[in-house]
Amino acid sequence: DPAGLAACVDGISEWARAREVDMVLGAEARGFILGGAIARNLGAGFACARKPGKLPYEVVRREYDLEYGTDTLELHRDAIRPGQRVLVHDDLLATGGTAAAKCQLVEELGGVVAGVAFVVELTFLPGRDRLRQYDVLSLVAYDSEDVEA
């Protein structure tokens, strides 16, 4: 839906603009959909965190817990420069594991997490608590497990 896409990109971009973002970091694969458009709106760069073995250069990696196991993300070692202000973006905030891993990768490379932005947040799960040290935006919040798909 063109209007929905525009609302998501514009809503996150407007919130992030005040945070003086240099780079947007999205994770494979849903974080790529809006991440590039948000970066373009902000006049910022875009970096991608990917599953192991997908990136062709030297990487840093972070393993993180999911509600059903563990996963790993990798980021090019030169994707974030020290001092760069990074917007960490993803489509959904649930338990916060993926977002926390991306924040840790940013900080490991010397970047500053300027904010963490999501389209949807499931408030009945502990994701926001896991990210309490960061500025967090969610455009839509669901506060019940009884939401119909």
Report what the structure shows.
The chain is of the alpha/beta class. It has four helices and seven strands, in the order αβαββββαβαβ. Strands 2-1-5-6-7 form a five-stranded parallel β-sheet, sandwiched between helices. Strands 3-4 form a two-stranded antiparallel sheet. The radius of gyration is 15 Å and the shape is globular. The mean pLDDT is 94.
Largest sheet: 5 strands, parallel
Count of individual beta strands? 7
Strand-residue fraction?
A: 35-45%
Largest sheet strand order: 2-1-5-6-7
What structural class results from the helix and strand content?
Answer: alpha/beta
What's the tally of helices? 4
Unreliable runs, pLDDT <50, ≥5 residues?
A: none
What is the H/E string? Answer: HEHEEEEHEHE
Overall pLDDT score:
94
- Using the alpha-carbon principal axes, give the shape: globular
- Measured distance between first and last alpha carbons: 17 Å
Name the helicity range: 25-40%
Please outline the helices and strands:
Elements lengths: L1 H16 L5 E5 L2 H13 L2 E5 L9 E8 L2 E8 L8 E9 L3 H12 L3 E11 L4 H4 L5 E7 L7
Parallel strand pairs: 1-2, 1-5, 5-6, 6-7
Antiparallel strand pairs: 3-4
Helix pairs in contact: 1-2
Defining key terms:
149 residues; alpha/beta; five-stranded parallel β-sheet; two-stranded antiparallel ribbon; 4 helices; 7 strands; globular
Give a short synopsis of this structure:
By secondary structure, the chain is an alpha/beta fold. It is 30% helix and 36% strand. The protein is built from 4 helices and 7 strands.
